[in-house]
């Protein structure tokens, strides 16, 4: 375990689709035990303040597949701005490590592009990297991702709804099992029920479909690491490797430092202590002032 007196780092943790800051709690406790500070971000439209479809928690869930999302107008710029605001508060530490999971890689990358001086290291936890292809959708639909699960989880017409909508409260056992296999394959069954009930149903459609432009002298100048999830069924390992390779080819000055965790897409649920150890292992010295 790292001596807490030697660590002056803060991890800024950005969740993925349908999640919130709350799901990082166990990993944050594990980071604290290793002497590192952390702060988890709620992206706009997520967390306890997230608006829900009006019938979501009602019997029969009326209108769930047709009601337009209250998050339909949410933009990638708004999501990135929320991260930048947290990064500014974290800058008092000698190392600021920006960690993003899954779909959170888009807004986190844009935040680092907008304010690279606020980030000493970017860590992608099975997360979208836009340097090779600008939209998360470009990778989700790539042939390398053909083995991924989860396509059958979407409800309604995403473009009409303005959101990628899922149904964490579904009573259909086949649907619930697909959700488990996709996102929580190695989370204990008893805990999975609690985890899925904590999810929000709507991901603003801008998050997977908006192009994120990053440049070599801003985003590309920040050292970066990628933590692969070896048995990921939401974002296939082959897709993770494709993003790494394309980013390194596009911006070779700071190639990814790559490590791998066993298990599925959400190690903060299944093995938070191992995740904290992986995050601590990628700490680097902060960049010299320019």
TrEMBL record:
<dbReference type="InterPro" id="IPR045889">
    <property type="entry name" value="MES/HNL"/>
</dbReference>
<dbReference type="Pfam" id="PF12697">
    <property type="entry name" value="Abhydrolase_6"/>
</dbReference>
<dbReference type="GO" id="GO:0080030">
    <property type="term" value="F:methyl indole-3-acetate esterase activity"/>
</dbReference>
<feature type="domain" description="AB hydrolase-1">
    <location>
        <begin position="11"/>
        <end position="278"/>
    </location>
</feature>
<dbReference type="InterPro" id="IPR000073">
    <property type="entry name" value="AB_hydrolase_1"/>
</dbReference>
<protein>
    <submittedName>
        <fullName>Pimeloyl-ACP methyl ester carboxylesterase</fullName>
    </submittedName>
</protein>
<dbReference type="GO" id="GO:0080032">
    <property type="term" value="F:methyl jasmonate esterase activity"/>
</dbReference>
<dbReference type="InterPro" id="IPR029058">
    <property type="entry name" value="AB_hydrolase_fold"/>
</dbReference>
């Amino acid at each position: 375990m790292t001596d807490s007196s030697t660590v002056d780092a803060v991890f800024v943790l950005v969740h993925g689709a349908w999640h919130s800051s709350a799901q990082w709690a166990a990993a944050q406790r594990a980071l604290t035990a290793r002497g590192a500070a952390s702060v988890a971000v709620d992206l706009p439209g997520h967390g306890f303040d997230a608006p829900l479809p009006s019938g979501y928690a009602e019997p029969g869930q009326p209108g769930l597949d047709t009601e337009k999302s209250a998050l339909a107008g949410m933009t990638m710029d708004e999501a990135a701005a929320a991260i930048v605001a947290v990064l500014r508060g974290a800058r008092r530490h000698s190392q600021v490590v920006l960690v993003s999971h899954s779909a959170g890689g888009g807004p986190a990358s844009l935040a680092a592009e907008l304010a690279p001086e606020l980030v000493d290291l970017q860590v992608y936890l099975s997360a979208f990297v836009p340097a090779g292809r600008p939209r998360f959708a470009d990778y989700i639909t790539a042939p390398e991702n053909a083995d991924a699960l989860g396509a059958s989880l979407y409800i309604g017409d995403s473009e009409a709804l303005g959101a990628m909508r899922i149904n964490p409260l579904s009573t259909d056992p086949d649907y619930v099992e697909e959700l488990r296999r996709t996102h929580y394959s190695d989370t204990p069954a008893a805990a999975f029920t609690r985890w899925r009930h904590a999810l929000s149903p709507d991901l603003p459609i801008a998050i997977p479909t908006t192009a994120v432009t990053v440049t070599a002298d801003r985003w590309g100048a920040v050292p970066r690491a990628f933590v692969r999830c070896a048995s990921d069924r939401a974002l296939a390992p082959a897709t993770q490797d494709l993003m790494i390779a394309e980013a390194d080819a596009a911006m070779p000055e700071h190639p990814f430092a790559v490590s791998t965790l066993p298990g599925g897409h959400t190690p903060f649920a299944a093995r938070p202590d191992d995740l904290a150890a992986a995050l601590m292992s990628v700490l680097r010295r902060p960049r010299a002032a320019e």
